[in-house]
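The instructor's notes for this session suggest beginning with a concrete chain rather than abstract definitions. Hand out the sequence below and ask the class to guess, before any prediction is shown, which regions might be ordered.
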Amino acid sequence: MKIQKNNLNIKRITPILVILLLLPGFLFIPQVFAYSESYNDISVKSARKMIKKSKHSDLLILDVRTKAEYSVTHLYDAVQLSYEDLEESISKIDEYKDNIIIVYCKSGARSKNSSQLLVDEGFSNVYNMEGGILAWIDAGYPVWSISHNVVVKDKGNIEITPRIIESCSCGCPEEDINDPQSDIAISVEFNVLEENETYTEVLIEYEIDEISYETLMKKTLLFSSESHSNEVDKYYELYYYEISTLDYNRRFYLLSYHNENKDYNFSITSILTPLTNDFYEKIETVIMHIPKGESKLTTIDLIDFKKEIKVSEYYKDIGKVAKQLAKEYRKSEDETLKKFSENYRTISKEMREFSQFINKDLYAYDFYTEESSAIIIDPIEPPPEGGGGGGGDDPLTCFICVAACSLALAIGCVGASYVYPPFASVCVAIIGEALIVGCEAACIWGGVC
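After discussion, reveal the predicted structure:
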């Protein structure tokens, strides 16, 4: 029985909080009737023509990247067998020995070796796609993707490209990370020094492997509002945080918005780091859209702004990005991905309304920022079986871990533990490791990536 070319089947995930060269040519498809001792190198242009011409034939598109890489972005109808395991799993495609097989990887190295292995095992029509999926994307050809890199430039121009992750999912060599099984003794104690309706001061004392630390967290409520209508509840909050340790001091605003209604839950969580009294150093935002009663994939789109921008305009531009992403998903050849188009139109509408709210109700904080970025997450279910690289099984959970870790560091991870005490041990462990090897490595260390 031939290997099935199935779309991804994704489980539900819950995040903490807050992720190229083409030469012109003509199509030449040699008809090979006898065993060939070598494979054929082809350009992405030729590969595209072969795939279109053989759309309903037994042509096999073979992705030899890892499951983690494949689960985020791949060619339509591609079958995944990782290069590292190809020799052991090659029997899965035995029935394709006399069929055309197009092999690709990220940039061409693994696919060359894989193509030679296939030829050595008796496969007679093997084609290595030079430049890999990077060249395919650079040529503007379509891919199945649940994650994009988005760049917003000076004049509002928006560039969207499918995201290609590294083979160990987070992009960090696994051998460079400490053993995730290491035992770390952790204890955390919270002492509320002062607390009223608008102000909280907490001393957090924690111990990691018998070394003691102290963090002082001051949280001031600057703005709070809520509205309730038929099946819609909206909540707005703005806090000012001061996090201090013996050798570390951080001040920032935490702006949050939550919309709960019958169709979906939606949230915006932003960290605004002030540079002066009327100018921000940077804004970092996590946007969550969770439809109710539906089974979907999980999308993660990363947005980077290459310009100084006012806070209200920043949220408005994210709305424009969401509108463009809606168009990208609507163009998909996959019916499930097409359904995300409606989700992103909803996100676009929410961002426009939030921009107007900032302009009207929080104008006193509507300053320009030097740097800005955002992550849009639509999480319902997971990537494919065995999807993760490193210690974990889910590359999207890895993305979320890195995003949440960065946000936790900005807020002060131990401060998050005060709000949700069960998170304390994990939080302190991650922040301790993050100080040494960074958030990406910390997530691998923690077994998430």
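Then share the key points. The first helix runs from residue 44 to 53. The longest strand covers residues 211-229.
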